[in-house]
Recover the amino acids of this structure.
């Protein structure tokens, strides 16, 4: 039954409004989910696919917490209803209804995003893709994998292992993140250096548009130049132009040999020459080049992430670099790697103090666990303000130092406010993860950091979000990396696809 | 200078190059063996043995005179020796056998190790080796070696404390009921269990030093040992495939299915 009646406006407590303007504006024309809506959804979905605090579902609010709160526990939505459709058709019907009823929708994958893009700003309906987790097909000649958007990245990895292929992206959240979410955020990760971005590896998408129409461009063709490449709009749109329900992606052949080595550097200035030399000598077998400063390494060790290096090996190290190689022939790779390591150790002015080479798969994983565990270590240490930025490589240390100095000048650099300022990231891609670890999220710290960090990045002509996306966190900061013309055209495209503004309102665009 | 009455420790660590533990094992079509065209690395328990020898030297310092590693295998097995040298062994012995030769059996290995020990001019006081190899899971070589040498043995060690002056060692063993503590006289064979230590990463300076450490090559004939197998493998098969369960929508369905399967509720 379609009812249009004015709902009593609930007054929400305004205790901690950190994102005052845009999301409120974006939500002002939208309706909340009512029991009548719930009754309609019950006709489309079985009761096991509906979680709602409204009657007759009457789910306890606590069960909606994992959907309403983001991974960092920094952003909190107040949705009453989570729907978990199992097919694209069900998604289409839900979206069609919400468009007619002007109900805001937050498409949600693994909810591992770091910019508050995957949880409601207020009480928008949460559309979880978790129940759409089938692998549709895999062609082991072309390497093309077609999967539902709700497939967890790790399970795609596990599936491909027996077919001697790998997913072309890898990130620390792989045990929880879903491929639809990865695509919607154009996730980068640890393998981008070698396999490129999702804009290149995604071959086709199946998307439900904001009016419920199913756009099926799930091609399995490697090359297809027929008209405008619409899928590129959805890759990285963070769910604001439609719901990704199916992905066709080019899997890469699994490397026959993988090696990694953790190098200890006496000073940050050596990172750039080390990168150049590593690229030169390893060339095509280089598959990852990750940087971490000493402080964040120590935090990882403190919080039991991976296995620490010997104290003798880390002494005097100002920062570390993890290098990974992947290639077709073990002997060939090891020869190149050993040559590189010898030349580094025996140079007249060595760029490194020392390093450790993994000699077994267990050690290979242990070294990676240090790098992949940095995010978790930071979260365990305190409340993290995360700035995922692209700046010139030689400015990485300067960004960390100047942020520290800014906080010191504001009197915020002590154990009860900001405990640490650390940097780590995908040096090979020019991408630094600046993390400010605080005892608690407070307006004072946020005011000290923003717009300071964004202005700093803009001064280097960098990106205020290299790979994490905009979400709700950086809508006001988009202007630091994109011109008014660009933003204006983004808004035009948004209005074209989503005239009622129901798709992930308050996210991405200011 | 007073000559030392203490006998310094000479440690021998046998190591084996096995299929890597992370590899998915596939049985060959002839059902006589598994696919060996996969990644190999040092048997994890042997890594622990090498690590323990190096840690003993770090604790006892000059009282450990030498740490020698030995392996039986084809040419590629030399890499395993280099890894051991990079962790901290001093020198290595490679008993080379042809690539096509069948894998040696525990008794053959134990006899070869006895020959190596008897050949050592300085003698061997302590053999530290893995409790089993992860390819055949035999778990026999250490015990057989101790028997052949008429030496003490302490297997499944989770802790090792050596006193070279007293020529004694205290070993804690992992057994079914818990832990057992033994006091043994040297010479001694110790086999390592998982919790003895966690092997270190090989550091770059040590890897480079390892390239210069000596590897002595020997053949079984030179040791006077015949490694021909005396056991015949009749058949190798995979374990039966796990039959899938079913998914239910909610708790009521779960209870219904449990009742169907004949499981009755018990009143608490």
């Amino acid at each position: 039954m379609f009812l249009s009646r004015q709902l009593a406006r609930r007054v929400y407590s305004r205790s901690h409004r950190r994102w005052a303007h845009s999301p409120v504006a974006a939500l002002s024309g939208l309706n909340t989910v009512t029991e009548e809506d719930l009754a309609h959804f019950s006709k489309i979905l079985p009761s096991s696919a509906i979680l709602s605090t409204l009657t007759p579902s009457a789910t306890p609010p606590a069960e909606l917490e994992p959907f309403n709160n983001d991974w960092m526990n920094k952003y909190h939505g107040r949705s009453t209803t989570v729907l978990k459709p199992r097919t694209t058709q069900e998604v289409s019907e839900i979206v069609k209804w919400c468009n007619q009823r002007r109900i805001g929708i937050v498409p949600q994958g693994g909810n591992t995003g770091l910019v508050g893009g995957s949880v409601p700003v207020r009480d928008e309906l949460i559309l979880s893709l978790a129940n759409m987790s089938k692998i549709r097909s895999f062609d082991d000649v072309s390497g093309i994998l077609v999967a539902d958007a709700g497939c967890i990245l790790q399970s795609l990895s596990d599936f491909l292992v027996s077919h001697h292929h790998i997913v072309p992206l890898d990130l620390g959240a792989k045990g929880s993140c879903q491929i639809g979410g990865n695509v919607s955020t154009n996730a980068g990760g640890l393998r981008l250096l070698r396999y490129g971005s999702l804009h290149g590896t995604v071959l086709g998408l199946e998307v439900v548009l904001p009016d419920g129409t199913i756009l099926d461009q799930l091609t399995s063709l490697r090359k297809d130049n027929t008209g405008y490449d619409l899928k590129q709009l959805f890759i990285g749109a963070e769910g604001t132009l439609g719901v990704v329900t199916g992905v066709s992606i080019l899997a890469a052949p699994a490397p026959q040999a993988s090696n990694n080595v953790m190098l200890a550097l006496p000073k940050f200035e050596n990172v750039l020459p080390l990168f150049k030399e590593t690229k030169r000598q390893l060339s095509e077998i280089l598959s990852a080049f990750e940087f971490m400063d000493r402080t964040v390494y120590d935090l990882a060790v403190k919080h039991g992430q991976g296995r620490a290096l010997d104290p003798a090996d880390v002494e005097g190290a100002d920062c570390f670099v993890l290098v990974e190689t992947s290639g077709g022939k073990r002997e060939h790779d090891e020869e190149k790697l050993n040559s590189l390591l010898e030349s580094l150790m025996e140079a007249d002015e060595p760029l490194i103090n020392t390093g450790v080479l993994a000699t077994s798969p267990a050690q290979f994983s242990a070294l990676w666990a240090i790098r992949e565990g940095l995010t978790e270590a930071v979260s365990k240490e305190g409340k993290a303000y995360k700035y995922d930025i692209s700046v010139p490589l030689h400015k990485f240390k300067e960004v960390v130092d100047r942020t520290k100095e800014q906080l010191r000048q504001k009197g915020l650099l002590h154990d009860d406010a900001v405990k640490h300022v650390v940097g780590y990231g995908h040096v090979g891609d020019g991408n630094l993860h600046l993390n400010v670890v605080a005892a608690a999220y407070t307006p004072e710290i946020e005011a000290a950091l923003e717009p300071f960090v964004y202005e700093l990045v803009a001064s280097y002509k960098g990106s205020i979000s290299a790979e994490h996306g905009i979400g709700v966190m950086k809508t006001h900061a988009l202007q630091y990396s994109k011109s008014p013309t660009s933003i204006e055209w983004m808004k035009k495209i948004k209005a074209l696809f989503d005239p009622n503004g129901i798709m992930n309102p308050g996210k991405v665009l200011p | 200078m007073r000559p030392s009455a203490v006998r310094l420790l000479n440690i021998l660590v046998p190591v084996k190059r096995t299929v890597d533990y992370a590899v998915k094992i596939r049985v060959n079509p002839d059902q006589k063996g598994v696919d060996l065209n996969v990644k190999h690395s040092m048997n994890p328990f042997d890594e622990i043995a090498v690590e323990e020898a190096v840690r003993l030297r770090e604790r006892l310092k000059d009282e450990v005179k030498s740490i020698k590693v030995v392996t039986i295998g084809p040419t590629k097995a030399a890499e395993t020796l280099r890894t051991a040298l990079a962790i901290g062994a001093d020198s290595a012995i490679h008993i080379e056998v042809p690539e096509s030769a069948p894998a040696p059996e525990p008794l053959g290995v134990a006899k070869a190790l006895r020959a190596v020990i008897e050949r050592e001019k300085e003698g061997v006081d302590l053999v530290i080796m893995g409790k089993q190899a992860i390819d055949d899971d035999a778990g026999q070589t250490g015990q057989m070696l101790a028997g052949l040498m008429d030496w003490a043995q302490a297997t499944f060690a989770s802790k090792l404390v050596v006193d070279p002056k007293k020529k004694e060692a205290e070993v804690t063993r992992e057994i079914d009921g818990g832990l057992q503590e033994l006091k043994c006289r040297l010479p001694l064979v110790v086999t390592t269990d998982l919790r003895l230590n966690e092997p270190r990463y090989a550091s770059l300076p040590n890897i480079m030093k390892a390239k210069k450490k000596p590897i002595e090559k020997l053949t079984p004939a030179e040791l006077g040992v015949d490694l021909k197998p005396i056991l015949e493998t009749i058949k190798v098969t995979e374990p039966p495939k796990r039959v899938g369960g079913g998914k239910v929508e909610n708790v009521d369905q779960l209870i219904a299915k449990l009742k169907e399967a004949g499981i009755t509720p018990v009143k608490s």
Q: What stands out?
A: The radius of gyration of chain B is 23 Å. Chain B has one domain: 9-242. Chain B is about 25% helix and 25% strand.
